[in-house]
Amino acid sequence: MSTADVALAPGPDEAAALPEPGRAPGAFGRFFRSELWLIFGRRRNWAGGLVLASVPLLIAVVVKVSGSGGGDTFVFAEITHNGLFVALAALTVELPFFLPIAVSAIAGDAVAGEANLGTLRYLLVTPVDRARLVLVKLGGITLFTLAATVLIAVVGAAAGLALFGGGTFTTLSGTSLGFAAGLGRLALVCGYLTLCLTGLGAVGLFISTLTEQPIGAGITLLALTVVSQILDQLSQVAAIHPYLPTHFWLDYAEVLRDPLDVGALGPGAASALAYVAIFTAAAWARFSTADVSA
Amino acid sequence: MVRRAVRWLVPVGIAAAVVGATLVSPASAGTALPERTPQQLLTDVQGATATAVQGTVQVQADLGLPSLPDVAGGPAAHRTDLLSALSGTTTMRVWASPAGARVAVQGTLGETDVVTDGDQVWVWSAADRSVTHLTRPAGDPVTHGAGSDPRAALADLAPARLSAAILAALDPSTAVTSGPDTTVAGRPAYQLVLTPRDAGTLIGSVTIAIDAAERVPTRVTITSTRTGKAALTAGFTDVSFTAPDPAMFRFTPPAGATVTTPDQPGAQSDRPGAPTVRAVGQGWVSVLVLSGLPSAASAPSGDLTGLASWVDTLPRTSGPWGSGRVLSSNLLSALLTDDGRVLVGAVDVATLEAAAG
């Protein structure tokens, strides 16, 4: 790119986002804060959060009214014994589709959204390093996935504890843990899923640098997620399963076994980190050489 | 423009490094093990002093079986974890010491556990939150017979147990050789290769990896003559020979679980009409003939209905010996005759039919 492509006047909307020239200390922090405001200050993202939070409420109320059925999976069957399982059940239900939708919306918007609104060139007028911009966008996506999983977990746990109470936490291995240990396991599930979804978000960030259409980028990422999950079901392509971005997601259930073997989360964590590294680098390679005209 | 292309080398390089790291198997132990003859290895195994083991066992099966019944739900759902060991890859975590044993068969979002402290056996199934509890009757003479001690049986984990059974069956029908040294669970291991001399068996070879330090079998691989590839591999992917916490071998049913206490095994064998077993043929081509089995229709509970309907999907065959259904896999074949006999062997169906006649 050449700086001649870039308009020189900062727009009024983005004035707050501009870091001080000359990379003053704290500029990165201010840039990051403005990115967070961009994500968490938007009304449409609040609406999305409301959808995510409604699922645990729905599960809690339905199980309370009609009881758990005989054919329920373990996580659902445990709800009536410990309300924390509402959070786990909600995360299980939202993992294949709802959470990827949320990540797709945010990640697809990351760069393409700014390009589409015409604010990207203003961002780049200031001496903000493009690599730094990619990192700030990745940080915003990471905090969003953390917020989304924690939101589901907190709403689920609160609703579950209110309707079903706490008590002992039964593991998949049939042992009983104390309430605090159960809460710790739930936190570990949230951490693992945040990492997995951030891996997906990094792919979205890269797609977002390819286009100026945030919706197109978001839908592309969502389609990739669904295709990945379909391929993961086909035994004929078992050789590529470990490379699929969604392959290790269900490994969060390893956290529910006793004794806890954190090493079982290793492959999933390594896969997610590899996706983050590869696609953040790809986003940087694409974005740092792209002509920004809009 | 050159610089633009160079930047793309960063993500491509990371991707290549990641994929490369997953494809390159960990380098086998650099230090060569001293030579050992098959006889020495067999003696080593019998003289092994390890009494405790804990680790992860992976079972990979390519048996070529027809699809198994009832994976999703229904009365047989709680058997899913165990049945799934017959197809694909199953991961088990095992802990064993003289104080007891615990085996956790892991499924996706499920688990089946067998826990014993020697006197009591608990079977937990997460799928239906059920617990089966068995207690050894007081003064049972079985206590002194090592052979049917559940503790001893479980302490001989899948690979170890499989090897012991195979070694016991060794006779002049088998060529026993040393295979190339290998690495199991990151530990150097010897390999013992058993090759049947009988041409009629489905078993191509049995390879037993023996841990070089502890002299304990840590992996068994059985190849099929039908596919020429491994049909069954059971081995540790992670192993340690330190004693697990004995608290692992006690089990308290969780709140809300269904606990059943079935008839004691001792009482069952006294029942009239217990099945009889006899062997036809010798060595690798021998066929086991079971008769007097309870038919699926008269099974006491609904447990067998799923299995019975699955049997009904097997192909039918008939001959001078009568008629029945056949189950053929890459390692074993079975013939279920209409007159209530079951013939099983590591042979093809024609050999079974000959034995039925």
Automatic annotation (TrEMBL), chain A:
Transmembrane annotation, as ranges: 46-65, 85-112, 133-166, 186-207, 264-285
Ranges for region Disordered: 1-21
Source organism of the structure: Actinotalea lenta
Protein name per the record: ABC transporter permease
Keyword Ligase carried by entry: no
Pfam families on file: ABC2_membrane_4
Record's keyword terms, sorted: Membrane, Transmembrane, Transmembrane helix
Protein's UniProt keywords contain Transmembrane helix: yes
Lineage: superkingdom: Bacteria
From TrEMBL, chain B:
Domain of life per record: Bacteria
Extent of the signal sequence: 1-29
Organism: Actinotalea lenta
Keywords for this protein: Signal
Gene3D superfamilies on file: Lipoprotein localisation LolA/LolB/LppX
Keyword Cell division listed: no
Protein name: MucB/RseB N-terminal domain-containing protein
